[in-house]
Design brief:
Elements: H1 4-40, H2 44-47, E1 92-94, E2 99-100, H3 108-114, E3 124-126
Antiparallel strand pairs: 1-2, 1-3
Length: about 130
């Protein structure tokens, strides 16, 4: 039966062996990397991903007629909107109990009022200033 102490001892021995192998192979890997950098004339930015690793091909002059034309998007057709759908900026609506200052969705009582539907209480539109309750 394996014990925790024996497993920890094996792990320590493996870690030592891994470090020895890393040191032994490091010199050979470093030599191969240096040769590749020299042979391919790589820069530090290319090696460490700070710039594109492949050089861009040289741009050739294209005649003006060969340039790609950008098509304009067709204009959207005008839509008719109900003037009651848009509240006046700075307008404050109140039904005596509730106040809506234009932020968020319109409350149901205000939508009904703007569309001319019957409302249970009178809705008052203040011009930019709400009456203190």
């Amino acid at each position: 039966m394996k014990t925790l102490a024996s497993l920890l001892a094996k792990r320590d021995a493996l870690e030592v062996e891994i470090e020895e192998m890393r040191r032994a192979e490091r010199a050979a890997v470093l030599k191969r990397v240096r040769e590749a950098v020299f042979d391919y004339q790589l820069t530090a930015d290319e090696v460490f991903f700070k710039a594109k690793a492949t050089p861009k091909p040289k741009a050739t002059a294209k005649p003006a007629a060969a340039k790609k034309k950008v098509k304009a998007k067709p204009a959207k057709p005008a839509t008719k909107r109900d003037p009651a759908d848009k509240a006046v900026k700075g307008q404050v609506y109140t039904d005596g109990v509730h106040v809506w200052r234009g932020a968020g969705y319109r409350p149901r009582w205000l939508v009904d009022y703007l569309h001319g539907r019957p409302v249970s209480v009178a809705v008052k539109a203040d011009n930019g200033h709400a009456a203190a309750a």
